[in-house]
Amino acid sequence: MAVLYLVPSPLSDGDWQNVLPAKVFRVLTTTGYFIVENIRTARRFLKLVNKNIDIDSLKFFVLNKHTEYSAAEGYLNPVVEGHDIALITEAGCPGIADPGAEIVRIAHKKNIKVVPISGPSSVILALMASGLNGQDFAFNGYLPIKHNERLKAISKLEEKAVRLKQTQIFIETPYRNDQMLKSLLKACSPVTMLCIAADLTGDNEFIATKTIEQWKREIPDLNKKPAIFLLGT
Amino acid sequence: MAVLYLVPSPLSDGDWQNVLPAKVFRVLTTTGYFIVENIRTARRFLKLVNKNIDIDSLKFFVLNKHTEYSAAEGYLNPVVEGHDIALITEAGCPGIADPGAEIVRIAHKKNIKVVPISGPSSVILALMASGLNGQDFAFNGYLPIKHNERLKAISKLEEKAVRLKQTQIFIETPYRNDQMLKSLLKACSPVTMLCIAADLTGDNEFIATKTIEQWKREIPDLNKKPAIFLLGT
Asked: What mean pLDDT, rounded, does chain A reach?
């Protein structure tokens, strides 16, 4: 029976075998149909994993926030006809903070078997490496951009982190990291723990967990580095 | 500079290269010190990854819920002296739903570099494969065991899932799965979405997302299978 594979991709440059299991090679070289966010980067990833791959023989469907439901539904026709399909994300795990979940939901409706492959998740890597509570945690995606709304959102997350002992995880676009850090240092109590994980799995990986008070003494430069933030106690 | 590696381990039997990157081989064969939950299973894992490994030359420290803080602190002495240490979990990612977080927290206090390796996380694999909201989700660990308290906890999670559009994830010990499923079918609204992911990455992997109403019509046998549950809308 044909299946929908969910294939993670690297978070940074470098050898894919540092972050992805060998199984990814097998899946990507025996699958002819791909659902991707961006064809150019998907082709580059396929070439990275198997430089002898015959890219021109492969069929790509583009899934992004502009894709209509009816089109997405059609993308799964090859599985129904007996061909495996792989969903590849731009970075990390499909369906986590990207538009992949919709296609998986359709697959379940059609009783198509879904097979997730393990790989790098910035949320999990950051949480593992934070030392903060990994028994109870929440991922909140992006916080509001406007200054006052952001401060309010941070205070709410901090309150939850303390009251529920639930680690609160969120992300920011790289060019806004420095503003995010300023807001965190302003909104949070000096004793709250903040973990910053930047450039995960990359050459300049930076992971540190400190109190807000400690961070204030030495503010790191996060500009343009993909980063993830965790608040805990 | 020596580092503390956080090394995931497989969730099921079978070829480790189906779920772990080749980097794990390199880390485990160049590291002489290990912090583990259980020495016997850690040795088995090391042999699985490298059958030629000289187990008797390796040094193991046991970290579990009975380990005292002062002992755990001492486990990191080899890093301070210039030797890499690897923290290995029983299954999945260290620090996520296991006692590993404490040692990582101590490492940050001592300014020891922490390097997480990517690998299988049942939380992320289940969420990817569920088709439920992966932009906002919470992992809640175990729910209460007592019948009435569990029903209350489930209702509260369902309410959160709906109100916040936040996928609610939780686990159960395998022999209580069937009771958990009964409680879910009793407590939740017929239109709530429930994903059940059992035996992830294993030969009998089972992942399905349906409404509570649909699940009631065909109740799966989850007895003794490691499973993870997700509520969403």
From this structure: 95
pTM of the model: 0.96
Using CB atoms, pick whichever of A118, A128, A200 lies closest to residue B94.
A128
B22-68 confidence digits (pLDDT tens): 999 999 999 999 999 999 999 999 999 999 999 999 999 999 888 88
| Helix, strand, coil fractions of chain A, as percent rounded to 5 | 40, 25, 35
Domain B3-116: give its CATH architecture. 3-Layer(aba) Sandwich (3.40)
Q: Evaluate whether the domain defined by A122-232 bears CATH number 3.30.950.10.
A: yes
Residue A91 CB partners (closer than 8 Å, separation 6+): A9, A10, A11
Write out chain A residues lying below 8 Å of B98, CB-based. Answer: 134
Q: How far apart are CA B7 and CA A165, in angstroms?
A: 25
Nearest one of A201, A183, A105 to A143, comparing CA atoms: A183
ipTM field? 0.96
Domains in chain B: boundaries: 3-116, 122-232
H/E element, B227: strand B227-232
Q: How many CB pairs under 8 A join A and B?
A: 167
